[in-house]
Structures are given as structure tokens and as C-alpha cells.
Design brief:
This protein has 485 residues and is of the alpha/beta class. It has helices at 8-16, 22-40, 48-64, 105-112, 155-162, 179-185, 219-229, 273-288, 305-320, 339-350, 353-366, 372-395, 418-423, 429-434, 462-474, and strands spanning 43-46, 74-78, 116-121, 168-173, 188-191, 211-216, 259-263, 292-297, 398-402, 438-446, 449-456. The chain has a domain at 3-257 and 442-449 and 465-480: Amidase signature (AS) domain (Amidase signature (AS) enzymes). It contains 15 helices and eleven strands. The chain is globular.
């Protein structure tokens, strides 16, 4: 087997047994990037020299016996997480030349564990999008069908893992931006509980919704990466001061004694028939593993989640993106007659159409005379959605839904129809609104295109997610299938 095909935990085992070195793993990954990235375009930046230096340092650390579980394992970081000395663009012209002077906390933690950073992943500009077609530089292609989207906004991070260009990656999830591309690319993607992972150094989109999480080739790797990045961070005021369990301990076969609910609102009108069939087969398998399945679950406020999200997220984006004024850092329009003209032109030429659309939506929702009608009402419905989940988790250990109601769509198909684009996240948005954790695992294919199974649990119950996901994964072979690159 080629080294780049290994999972992170398989690669770590080989490193510990001295059967390979981090430098060899890194060269294998860099070779794979050179071979397939011209087709899929997952990377905004490749850090070849830095990665090899880090690999050499990791090998020295492994020899000394001072190694963490992920020491020497090559990874990819979404390009909205600050990396000291390495460009962080958010796939936007606004930050095309921005080089941060510090690392995001998650990058700092992984670096402390001996990470080898291969580069930065392409994304929808400022994480606003569901297809990674809204990058200011180039779109990313789905490795299962290059004519289709990989999902978004963390499309590059998902594709890097699916195409074996890296062993794991980090993405961010504001309304499904980890889980939806994980489902579209047939990899594992987890959005932790809001506050479980520090957001310090994550370029803000919607601060009450954003959360960082891993993309991996299997659930075991997901537990290892979550172990490495979780924990309280005093630099993030929303970080939860709670202990972090060893998530690898949750990976046990069988689901005997677990109650799983299937909310009927997630089997929406417009769901593709093939997706429904894959879900039915997954539910049967979960039942065979010992879980008690209840299909008579209702979360009646779910249909309002899309509207709530597209008021709250753009409102927060409007406030967060006001800092890009062309004065302190980033792109600045030089051909301007006055300060105000310069400010307008900086945003006009530095930001793409989807980002502008969301800023305008948010500014309108926050404006005088509309605040109560839109933003305040959305926050009240958000509370109702959160309480609804709380009540469901009094009865069920986890909920099971499709990750997306559709398979990956063709590139360009939804670019002129924002509502259809937004609807591809309809199954993932409610978890961000409620701040609860969710994971997507490979569940099958429809006409050769991937379908993801989403598992959702109460706040800080990532162990339950991982247990259900691991048991399902071990009873199926979907995670072992590779795209025909």
C-alpha cells in the first residue's frame, strides 16, 4: 500500500515501530499533491520546505521517545486559521497577501504535538458558501466526480483527506461547513460542541456559530485529532472550562442500550430518492448493532432553522467584516478620491459577490426599524430550537439524520440560485444554531456519488457521537472506498 493511503493511526503505528519515518510520509503526501491537486485544487498554499523541516524535527522527537499520537503525521489546515509566517487568505482577494504573526490555538496545539503542516486548504471566501465555488482563486472539485462540487465551505480540507493528499485536516463549521463536505466527499467530519475547541485565531464569520473540527479517513483518526485540539483556552471568551475526556476510549463496537431518534423533519420534501434508500439501509444496520431506533420523533421548529440561520449568520458577518476597511491590513484600493471612497472601493474590489450578498442581508436585518422584526425574532426562535433539542435528548442518546438531502451537485448548477445553494445545508444548520455536536460518516453511494450519515448528540456528548459512528463504520466498508483519481 502507498504510504499516502494510510490512515493517521496506521501511519502513527508505523512511525512508532520505525517501519517508516515522518520524512517518508511527508514526501509521499507531497508527491500525491503534485500528482492529483492539479485536478481537484484542494490547496491554496503548499508549504513543502516547512513541512520537510517539521518532519525532520518530528523524526528526532520520535527517536527520543517524546512523541504524541499525531507526531509526524502530515496535515492540512483550512485557510481561515492563522498560521504564523504562512499566508492566511480566507480564499479572498481581501487577504490575498496577509501573513499572520501568530498561530491559531488549534494550530499551536497541533504544532506542540509534532504536526507536519503540508499547506492551507481552499474554501468558500470567508467560509460563506456550500460548494467551494465561491473561492476568489479557483473552485475545488469533488474527487468522486470532477464535474461536481465537494461541498463547502471547507471543501478543500475535505478533498485533501478524500484524495489522500493529507492524513487529516482541520475545517470550520458555521452551518454545516465540515459535515456537508464530509458527506459529499465520503470522509468523516465532526463539528464539536460550541466552545469545546478554541476559536482563537480563526478568522471570524459568525462568532456565535463558528466551530473548528477535524476531517479524517476514519472515526479512530477523528477521536485522535479531537483529543489534540480540544480544551479550554483563556484567549477565547466562549471556550468552555470543562475537562476533556480521552475520546479514543469511546470507540467500542456495538450499540446495545443506546436509544437513537430519527426526526421526521429531516426527511424533507425534495430529498433525493437514493439518499432516502441509503438512510433506510443505515438505520437497519444501526438496529442490527443493538440500538433501539425510534422513527416517531418530531422537532417541529426545524423548518424555521434555515430562515433563522440566514438572519443570524449574515448579521454577525456584517459586524465581523466591517474591520476590512483597507486601513489596518489586507487589500486596500489605492485609486480613491477620499477616505470614504477608498473604503467603498476596498470592499467593492476586495470582496466577492456571495460575501457582499451576506453583508447586505445582515446589515439590513440589523438596521433601525428591522432589528426587532428580523434579528430579535430570529434569536427567539433560536432559543426554541435549542430547547427542542434539549427535550429530545432527555429521551434519546443521539439523533440520526441525512447529512444532506442531496448528493453532490454539478459545478455551476446552483451558483445563480442562492436559495437552492443554501438548502443543501438544511440538515446541518440546526446543530450550529443549538450549539450541539454532530458528525458525518460515509454511508453509501447513489450512482457513484457519496452520501453521508449524520449523528447528533447533546452538548459535550462527543463520546456518544464517536461511539455510534465507530460502531456503524466497523460494520460497513464505505469508509474504505477510494475515489477514482
Amino acid at each position: 500500500m502507498s504510504l499516502f493511503r494510510l490512515t493517521a493511526h496506521e501511519a502513527a503505528d508505523r512511525l512508532r515501530r520505525r517501519e517508516t519515518s515522518s520524512v517518508e510520509l511527508t514526501r509521499a503526501a507531497l508527491g500525491r499533491i503534485a500528482s492529483v491537486d492539479p485536478k481537484v485544487r484542494a490547496f491554496v498554499s503548499v508549504c513543502e520546505e516547512q513541512a520537510l523541516r517539521q518532519a525532520e524535527a518530528a523524526d528526532a522527537r520520535l527517536k527520543s521517545g517524546d512523541a504524541a499520537p499525531l507526531t509526524g503525521i502530515p496535515a492540512l489546515i483550512k485557510d481561515n486559521m492563522c498560521t504564523a509566517g504562512v499566508r492566511t487568505t480566507c480564499s479572498s482577494k481581501m487577504l490575498e497577501s496577509f501573513v499572520p504573526p501568530y498561530d491559531a490555538t488549534v494550530v499551536e496545539k497541533l504544532a506542540g504535538a509534532g504536526m507536519v503542516m503540508l499547506g492551507k486548504a481552499n474554501m468558500d471566501e470567508f467560509a460563506m458558501g456550500s460548494s467551494t465555488e465561491h473561492s476568489a482563486f479557483f473552485p475545488t472539485h469533488n474527487p468522486w466526480d470532477l464535474a461536481r462540487v465537494p461541498g463547502g465551505s471547507s471543501g478543500g480540507a475535505a478533498v485533501g483527506v478524500a484524495a489522500d493528499e493529507c492524513f487529516y485536516s482541520l475545517g470550520s463549521d458555521t452551518g454545516g461547513s465540515i459535515r456537508q463536505p464530509a458527506g459529499f466527499c465520503s470522509v468523516v467530519g465532526l463539528k464539536p460542541t460550541y466552545g469545546r475547541v478554541s476559536r482563537y485565531g480563526l478568522v471570524a464569520f459568525a462568532s456565535s456559530l463558528d466551530q473548528i473540527g477535524p476531517f479524517t479517513k476514519d472515526v479512530t483518526d477523528c477521536a485522535l485529532v479531537l483529543n489534540a485540539i480540544s480544551g479550554h483556552d483563556p484567549r477565547d471568551s466562549t471556550s468552555l472550562p470543562v475537562p476533556v475526556p480521552d475520546y479514543a476510549q469511546a470507540l467500542v463496537p456495538g450499540l446495545k442500550g443506546l436509544r437513537l431518534g430519527v426526526p421526521k423533519e429531516y426527511f424533507v420534501a425534495g430529498m433525493q430518492a437514493g439518499v432516502q434508500d441509503v438512510m433506510e439501509a443505515a438505520l437497519v444496520r444501526l438496529q442490527e448493532l443493538g440500538a433501539e431506533i425510534d422513527r416517531d420523533v418530531s422537532l417541529p421548529h426545524t423548518p424555521y432553522a434555515l430562515a433563522v440561520y440566514y438572519i443570524i449568520a449574515p448579521s454577525e458577518a456584517s459586524a465581523n467584516l466591517a474591520r476590512y476597511d483597507g486601513v489596518k491590513y489586507g487589500f486596500s484600493a489605492k485609486e480613491a478620491e477620499s477616505m470614504w471612497d477608498g473604503l467603498e472601493k476596498t470592499k467593492q474590489y476586495g470582496l466577492g459577490p456571495e460575501v457582499k450578498r451576506r453583508i447586505m442581508l445582515g446589515t439590513h436585518a440589523l438596521s433601525s426599524g428591522y432589528y426587532d422584526a428580523y434579528y430579535l425574532k430570529a434569536q427567539k426562535v433560536r432559543t426554541l430550537i435549542r430547547r427542542e433539542f434539549d427535550r429530545a435528548f432527555e429521551k434519546y442518546d443521539a439523533l440520526v439524520t441525512p447529512t444532506s438531502p442531496v448528493v453532490p451537485f454539478k459545478m455551476g448548477e446552483r451558483m445563480d440560485d442562492p436559495l437552492q445553494m443554501y438548502l443543501s445545508d438544511v440538515c446541518t444548520l440546526p446543530m450550529n444554531i443549538a450549539g450541539i455536536p454532530g458528525i458525518s460518516v460515509p454511508a453509501g453511494f447513489v450512482d457513484g456519488l457519496p452520501v453521508g450519515l449524520q449523528i447528533v448528540a447533546r452538548p459535550l456528548a462527543e463520546e456518544t457521537l464517536l461511539r455510534v459512528a465507530y460502531a456503524y463504520e466497523q460494520a460497513t466498508d464505505w469508509h474504505k472506498k477510494k475515489p477514482p483519481l
